Amino acid sequence: xxxxxxxxxxYGKNKVLTGVDLDIxxxxxxxxxxxxxSGKTTLIKSVLGMVIPDAGDISVFDSSIKGxxxxxxxxxxxxxxxxxxxxxxxxxxxxxxxxxxxxxxxEEQLISLLELEPFLDKKLSTxxxxxxxxxxxxxxxxxxxPLMILDEPTTGLDPAxxxxxxxxxxxxxxxxxxxxxxxxxxxxxxxxxxxxVYLLEGNIYFQGSIKELKEKTKEKxxxxxxxxxxxxxxxx
Length: 236
Description:
By secondary structure, the protein is of the alpha/beta class.
C-alpha cells in the first residue's frame, strides 16, 4: 500500500525527516505518533504529494508517486486544520467537493449521523470549531477510497461525536481499508490503532503493535510506554 525509502526533508537548516523507512501493508489502522516537530505532518504531506522530499522515494498502491498526482484520487484526507472558504455554506462546500472528486458519495448518511442538518445553509465562517470538524469528517468519509489519512481527527469533537468517529473508523477498517491517523489523544489511539509508528527527531524509533510497544518499554500503561520510547533508540 505505502512504501517509504530513505526519506529526507529539511526546511532551511531544520532537518525534519532524516532517512525514514516505512512499509504499510493493506488493511488496518496505523497511528503515526510523535512529539511536536517530530515530522508527522511532513511525512503525511509527503505521501499526499503536498511536500516534495529532498531525497528518498515514496510508493503508494505499489507505484512511485514521483511526478504523479492521479493516485491522490484514491485517498481520502482529513487535514489537521480545516481552512474552509468562509463565504460558502456547508451545503455548498460539500457539493463543491463532490463535483471536484467526481465519485459516488455518501454525504447524506454522514450528515444525518453527525446531526449537521441544522447547519447546512449556514456560512462556514459562523460555525464553531467542533461543527467545522464534523464537516471535515463528512468530506473525508463520504467517498469510497482504499486509503484514508486522518490528521488529528478528534480535534474539537464532543464525546458523542467522538464515539461516532470511532465507529466510522472501525467501519472503514472492516471494509479492508488502510487508515493512517495522527492524534495526541492516547486513549483514542489505544482504542482504534492496530499498529503504532513512532517518529522522533525525524526518524522512526518504533513500529509495531501496542502489545509489542509495552513489551519493549516494559511499561504496562500505554501512555507511559509512549513516553518511554525516547529511551529506546533502536528501530523495531
